[in-house]
Amino acid sequence: MLINGEDMGSGTALLIAAAPAGKGCLIDATSALPTLAAVPPGVLAGAAAATLVELADPTDPQTVLTRIRAAAAAPGPLTLYIAGQLHLDHKQRLIHLALARTTTPATLRYTALPWHWLASELKLRRPGSTTVVIDTVAAQDAWQQLRAEGLVLGYGIRLYGRIVPPPPRRQIAEPAYLKAFAAAWRSGLNPPLARLHEQAAAQAGPDDALFLSIGDPATLSVPSPVAPAAQAAQQPHQAPVPVAETTGATAEEDPLPAILAAAQAGRHGEAASLAAIWEGWALRTYGVGSVQAIHWLEVRADLARLADDPARSCELWMAAADARLARQQPPDDPAVESAVDRAHHQWQQLRDPQRARELGPPLDALRHHVPGRRPGAVDAVRHRLELLDTQPPATARGAAP
d(Cα 365, Cα 367) in Å, to the nearest integer? Predict the structure, then answer.
């Protein structure tokens, strides 16, 4: 028998609901726990029998990590349900899940759970055995980054969820998405998670939410990255399918059109998450600095442009240019020139003078090395930097460059 596509055996369901106490609270995270806990543990875990673990408003990230590690080490299917709020560490620009004592940005790195800790623990599990369902509010700075880059856990991990921007002042968001999951199960329904995600998304809204549906092999319109050896094992009676030189995807399963379609439909977080997964696969398969890895870096840069995040797009295009130069491609190589031209263009779109000042010097250095074919490009960067230096931040804010 199967439940939600998982083998019927012994599994684990881990429920985590956390939010800062006091004024920093953006979501009533723990209100999701009673409704989820009323669902049979086996249904929550996608197994015949399951262990259910609840963490309500934990205060210590190390304690949460220990519980996640124990759950990840257990055999059988694992499903994590997370309700809470996401914040951005400004020093390292890493996403964190806030806990009960996460009260200020200055204490974030010590009182919140870094998202990459979760990813590191789960990546050790057998692909296809892990599902994560999230219902989160993102603080404003985290929201801007997540809109452009999405949220990634890694290959072989199914991720369903809703991320919403911060609510208006003096309002607290509800984990309506997770409550819709629980309501469906308690009514006796048990559809595949992908279908349940669609139903919950339609019920919970809002229109500007980021909805993630990543990694389900039965429903995902974008093929999952599979190593060549695994592809051969899946097609024992067919001739090997040639691997596309640019993407690392098979010629029959190019993921790029579907990723771009998601971005053009406004599902920027989903598109960015998928591109990041493919980039990670290219790095593992072909290595750092490979043509395939650089391709996906450039895809992510263009997705940031489509998400209206010129700062991130500029950063990624500069990284792509640096990666191509590190491959000994000459400064007048069309691919190098194109990457620098795109970085320059995105920098010109920046309306935040502080971010423009931060990105200007590395772009200036890159422009001197790769002047491009448009006359005056080098001088244009230097001229704008001089203007930014002479304008006070309050005067320059919001002004067109």
Answer: 5
